[in-house]
Amino acid sequence: MALNPYDLYDVRSLLSDEERAVQDTVARFTDERVIPIIGDAFDQGRFPKELVPEIAALGLLGSSLPEKYGCAGLNAVSYGLICQELERGDSGIRSFVSVQSSLCMYPIYAYGTEEQRERWLPGMARGEIIGCFGLTEPHGGSDPANMKTNAKRDGGDWVLNGSKMWITNGNLADIAIVWAQTDDGIQGFVVEKGMPGFAAQEIKHKMSLRASVTSSLFFDNVRVPEANRLPNVKGLKGPLGCLTQARYGITWGPIGAAIACLDEVLGYTKERILFERPVAATQSAQIKMAEMARRITMAQLLVVQLGRLKDAGNMQPTQVSLAKWNNCRMAIDIARECRDLLGGAGITTEHAAIRHALNLESVITYEGTETVHQLVVGRELTGISAF
Q1: What residue stretches are annotated with the Acyl-CoA dehydrogenase/oxidase N-terminal domain (predicted)?
Q2: pTM of the predicted model as reported, rounded to 2 decimal places
Q3: Known catalytic residues?
């Protein structure tokens, strides 16, 4: 019996019936609705926002949050499979879902009041309210503690000043989860579109995540009511807790991108005839593709165990760092190798490899660069911070 070339260790057999059903549903959506349009959307630098109602109808927004807020109440492995199948289509689609779910809905659920949850989460689950996450600043990057955006108390309101950069969904967003320095430490605020002094400016000229909206946010004496402050967390542990949730999804997503590239190159090398035989019949091509399958298999086993740890409440941030580092590096290397095997054809977006390779330049950078995650693991091993 032939093995599945994209699942050599039958990782699917480790999944529950519900987890397999989730994967199959999202895989169909990706095959039927994302892949046919995503190359053109990437070329045009356009996020296909027409897909948002369908994404919401499938229950993919805030999928791990409780059903009482209109969410699906799925486990962590199911959320990971959602990310994997969406990124098999494009990192930009997975990024949209990650930001909405892990960086916007999660902090409202985890750090907000019941009134805030009821006010925003059901609409966000339906895709009627889009969120973005404002942490990164132009000068901050990997050092979020070096935050300049500030909020000052003024009666019953807060007055917000500063800016954020590299914000996914920024110009789409109806609300922004913004982290700011206060006299009582870093705190989170829900800033609503249309509040005077709040502006979003889309970042153009991108060569990566072109089918995604990336923006800068500006706050000029934006008056935010106390009812919009997330009261149940203070300090960097608030935004870092959100990032751990999102990074978990990112550990799964690049596997989908890698599988898409391998699938494409397997088909191409069998049909491409050079020197009177298919490229797939050469030792060099088989060794390269075998190496891809090996690395994909390792990544698959890594994330399933990570998901089981998360569902058991035992997942540690260092484990997420290790998986993001490993799986992003795996995927970007595979995408580049596949581009090479496609030859000249590989430089066009008629093939997926160059698009995935370019997207993964962002994925390997955002929410902790490769170096940051290496240093997180190093700190765990030695007990010494080298940041």
Answers
A1: 16-128
A2: 0.95
A3: 367
